[in-house]
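To whoever picks this up:

The nightly regression suite flagged Ribosomal RNA small subunit methyltransferase I as changed. Nothing in the input moved, so I suspect the structure step. Input below, exactly as stored in the fixture:
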Amino acid sequence: MARARLSGGGSPGRMGRVTTAHASADPAGSVSDSSAPDASPVYGGGHPDDVGDGGPDPDGDGRGGADPDGNGDGNESADGGADADGDGDGRAPGPVADLAPIPARGAGLLVLAGTPIGDPADAPPRLAVELAHADVVAAEDTRRLRRLTQTLGVRPSGRVVSYHEVNESARTPQLVEALTAGDRVLLVTDAGMPSVSDPGYRLVAAAVERGIRVTAVPGPSAVLTALALSGLPVDRFCFEGFPPRKQGELLARLRENAAERRTLVYFESRHRLAATLAAMAEVFGAGRRAAVCRELTKTYEEVKRGGLGELAAWAADGEVRGEITIVVEGAPAPRPEDLGPEELAALVRTREEAGERRKEAIAAVAAETGVPKRVVFDAVVAAKKAAGPA
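Regenerated output under the current build:
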């Protein structure tokens, strides 16, 4: 089956080298992806008769390097050698055994790979193998990918393209086309797992809709690392991503979260940390326990624990640097004496809206609050009468 060609610009080709930010000076003709806000280079360019380092393409297959096994598929192994195991897939034996099963031609596979959140040594071993054997590597920032591949000592053998929030909508159909043609596509983001507050969701949804297999290479997670270090309950938690930037929207979101019993996890920019912690102290209460985790797994890792009021003052008192994850204790269980008929009826209504039958919802609210079931039932009946006929 013919393979779909995907490149970031220039003549379609396959470059096995990580280019620099000055890709325009590359004699091989590699180009930068002008759609990226940071002008991240795309490894998909280059003349089809040249490899990424400007060397010749003796067999003229456009893949850069000879086809020593002579099977005409141009699929040399990652180091440019022959298909040593003779299985016709063009991949070397050995580390490939650590891969998810390599699909047959025409049966593409999307691989989501976690990347280090700070310390490059945390990269999962399978990440290097996937980078070496993927047909297409889609990276949030190709410059960061270059540094990572240098650290891992691996050279991507496939095409490398940018995939970020600016070009995600346009790039997704191209990647789906490559998957449909049988390519193994590896998706990586700057740090952590694709789709988790990072690009990836649209591509996964599109692949699933087309019946394309999706798998993952698990890796480091800022969410789980922060939870583990926070000193707060982690048996149940809720991840909220980045809170809204505008003050009104931020307060509205926090009010939605105020009664959440599970531990809450947020990402936040260092520039907005003080304002966000102050808003949390206002809505959740200054005494609600929390932890601010910054620079996780890096040299200057720090976890600051305390009440939200204390943490807000700490953040306002000096510039907090680095990438930040906030962990906030869940709301305390309501006391029976604080719950009137309206509050009890509202708790039952919330459970009904989630799909529970009224009898089950009443029993659950009674068990959760310590209020007798008869009292909860009477509160529901009173609320129904007050609302009038439906």
